Structure formats: structure tokens, C-alpha cells
Amino acid sequence: MSIIDKSYFKGKIVIPSTNKPVVAETVNLFITTEERQFMIDLLGNELYQLMLGEEANEPFKSLIEGADFTMDFLGRTLNLKWNGLQNSDKISPISYYVYCKYRESKNSGFTGSVETKGKKENTVVINPRAKIVASWNLMVDLRGEVGKSFHPYQSSYEVFNGQPTAYNYLLANIDLFPTWIFTPQNYMNVFGF
Hints:
Low-confidence stretches: 108-113
Shape: globular
Radius of gyration: 18 Å
Order of helices and strands: HHHEEHEEHH
Strand order of the largest sheet: 1-2
Mean pLDDT: 88
Structural class: alpha+beta
């Protein structure tokens, strides 16, 4: 069962026509495949496999649904609220990740299909890359940006900012997630770097 559904694709990451069966089926396929990859990158394969079927039980329930947590940052103790991967706001780093993968699949690099923006009598062709990059960077913000000095060894995980991100939630609760292996995702620009 997926953590998110097509209702998460709204606002800046709307996918049109999800009420049509063909589009809904495609979006659901992307959710199934890309959510899995997102979770493996977030948790590591071993922890992801442990989570399957245990989503309703702690500690995975709080990761998915959100929870308050405390962490130290720059000598201060911060009380933060992790909003979860699934929430009533319908804002999840998973949805931004899936959206980007969906949109990239509809494009062929920088010169694939284009978006159109209405003009009184005509339309103007615009490149969707800027929108994909902005969505990707929002996903990184929600997931947790860890900087270029990050090393993927749990003993070296450190706090990089004081934000209520998935990374910081997992780090603050590292004793509950002993096999956690985080694969960072970096910010992108319109050039793909």
C-alpha cells in the first residue's frame, strides 16, 4: 500500500486529468515505483524492508504520520514538529519526488514536450525544466539537505540545519532506526547540476 495517493498532486505540483482512468493508472504506477525508490533512498533497503507491513506500528507510524521531536542545533535544544510523509496538508517529500520523476518521464531531457501558457489568442511554449527543478528542490527541503560534506556512514551523521525534515527526524530518533542508511539528494538547477 502506498503512503501517498493522487490527491497529493495539487497546487504547484498538479498533474492534470487524474480523474481520467488512463492518467490515474499512470500516476498510480509512478507512485508505486517511485515511492519505493524514495523510501529506499531515505531509509536504506534493510530498514525499508522492515517497514513494509509495519507502517501502522511505531516507530514507522510516527515517521509516516508525523510527530514532535527534539534535537540539538548550534548549542540549543529545538522542539520541532515533523509533519510526516502522509498528512492532511497533502504536502509530502514523496509527492514532490514522484512529480519530478513523472514530469521527467514525459520529457526527453531539456527538449522534450513542453508546457503551454495561455495567451489571449495564442499560446506560448515554455520549458517545464524550471518547474521540475523548483519541485525537486522543495522535495530536498522537506527530506533534508545535508550538504556536500555528508558521508553515508551512520556514525558520521550530523545535524546540518534546524528544520523539521525527514532527515532530522530520523537523526533525532536514531535509536529507533538502528539500520538507517541515508542516501542524500542534492539541490538542482535548470542545467541539471
